[in-house]
Specification:
12 helices
């Protein structure tokens, strides 16, 4: 919400320069600045270094957030990355964007129960062994995806997926191995 804060400060008409001058006065104000439609990328990058998780989360959700900041914070705020409205545009500009994420970010996203289907699909098609293993360990994963991992080239992930399928009473047919 942009408007008067608890101290009566109205940020709605503030310019990027005015917002920059207000950074660091309080966590609540920093959150409002991070959410502001006039904030510039450099200010968001500075706010991303805040010790406050609430401020960093607000930075991750702002569509004006620089791509490098989104990528740097993605492992700690994976769902915020996917909830940022600019992500579809970033993927149009850079279809292989997920491969640029730090491996820790990808694994955190894949292990999250709220991992978007598009990320699971990407990991199945383009991911490496650690991605396949993270998928095989997911509590909620479609059986079709588990079968794909079980048939894949990544031995440890394939063994894990096969074990999980057997535990569900699903055997891979000879033509599926």
């Amino acid at each position: 919400m942009i408007g008067p804060d608890k101290d009566g400060l109205d940020l709605s008409a503030k310019s990027a320069r005015e917002l920059d001058l207000l950074v660091g006065q309080s966590t609540g104000l920093d959150v409002q600045i991070a959410q502001h439609p006039n904030v510039n990328g450099a200010t968001l990058a500075g706010l991303a270094a805040s010790p406050s998780r609430v401020v960093k989360r607000a930075v991750m959700l702002n569509p004006l957030c620089p791509t490098n900041v989104l990528m740097d914070l993605a492992s700690k705020f994976p769902l915020e990355l996917f909830n940022n409205p600019v992500l579809p545009l970033l993927l149009l500009e850079e279809p292989d964007l997920f491969s640029q994420l730090p491996i820790s970010a990808v694994k955190a996203i894949l292990k999250s129960p709220d991992c978007p289907e598009m990320m699971i699909s990407w990991a199945l098609k383009h991911g490496g062994s650690s991605h396949a293993l993270a998928l095989a360990d997911r509590a909620q994963i479609p059986i079709k995806a588990l079968k794909q991992i079980a048939q894949g080239p990544h031995i440890k992930a394939a063994e894990r997926a096969q074990s999980r399928l057997m535990g569900m009473g699903i055997a891979l047919g000879k033509d599926e191995r």
